[in-house]
Amino acid sequence: MNILRSVPGQPExxxxxxxxxxxxxxxxxxxxxxxxxxxxxxxAFAGALLCPRGGCGECRDCRxxxxxxxxxxxxxxxxxRDIRVGLGPDDHGTARWMxxxxxxxxxxxxxxxxxxxxxxRMTPEAADVLLKALEEPTGGTVFILSSARPDELPETVRSxxxxxTFHPLAEAFVVDTLVNEGAxxxxxxxxxxxxxxxxGRARRIAAxxxxxxxxxxxxxxxxxxxxxxxxxxxxxxxxxxxxKEYQKGLxxxxxxxxxxFTDPETGAPVRQFRAEIRRLEERHVRRERRAERDxxxxxxxxxxxxxxxxxxxxxxxxRDWSINLDLDGGRLSARDAARAVEVLEEAREALADETNxxxxxxxxxxxxxxxxxxxxxxxx
Length: 380
What we know:
Elements: H1 11-20, E1 27-31, H2 38-50, H3 60-66, E2 73-76, H4 95-102, E3 112-116, H5 124-135, E4 141-147, H6 155-158, E5 162-165, H7 171-180, H8 185-194, H9 199-207, H10 213-225, H11 229-258, H12 274-314, H13 334-352, H14 359-370, H15 374-378
Parallel strand pairs: 1-4, 1-5, 2-3, 3-4
């Protein structure tokens, strides 16, 4: 088994990485949309570099690399919204810490590999610090930067990386993948379209009836908004409550993830798994910080898709082109549907700016502006 060949739907990128694993460049930029397989490919490429057999998929090095647990592998992700420059070399997960770690001797023989997820979220100061490491690479070190928005990285950083392009996965490929994994064909197609072709998200949507909880919450909130200004405020409350319930669910996910590493009698962590437990807890903290805004963004995007379907219907488009194949296209005019899409886009943009601390206010404003069109959608 070659772990790179297990990455689906990206034959050109995988062909390039198989060749690169023999004599790697010091830095790569994996560029492509969310859900295109960049993260899976980055894990597999790291495994190919760390495995003495080039990524056999069976040895200790491959297993640890695929689980983000190899001693020679460092995974850096945004803390909150950004990857920060950091105060010093001991400030874990920051640019200064990363550069300091790159200059040290690897814990085990072989390459040192850095995976930087959502690299476009580096602050300008952090990018400047990383640039120094890319300009004067330390022998035996490989950086793998991943980004769905590579144009937001400084040109100075991009120019020092070999870019590996990941294309959006074809709808038919994602649907076939889900069907082969046991999803009914109709649900697989719906999940694929609602997820925008993001295979990971489509899997979660297709997995069970709660996979579309964010869309259900959004539609219920829109129904509330149809009652006028008072309903719009209630709609914001409803969606906030649903986001907090989702956030609580992550806590239950952490408990389930930690269960294999705890003593069944005492419930205490098993000592030899402390590093793994810490990694899981740190990742959970990052997910929990983003959870509320992520859920709200998915919900607003789901409403946007509903209004886009209304726009398609108003323009006389083919029903088979709709995103929400299980919902009626609505009875909105093209003008109203387009205005609703604009309102939701502005709300999502405001939500993405984490300096906007009052999330509820963003939702209230959006639903107040949608009150005129909500009844037509809700009654469809």
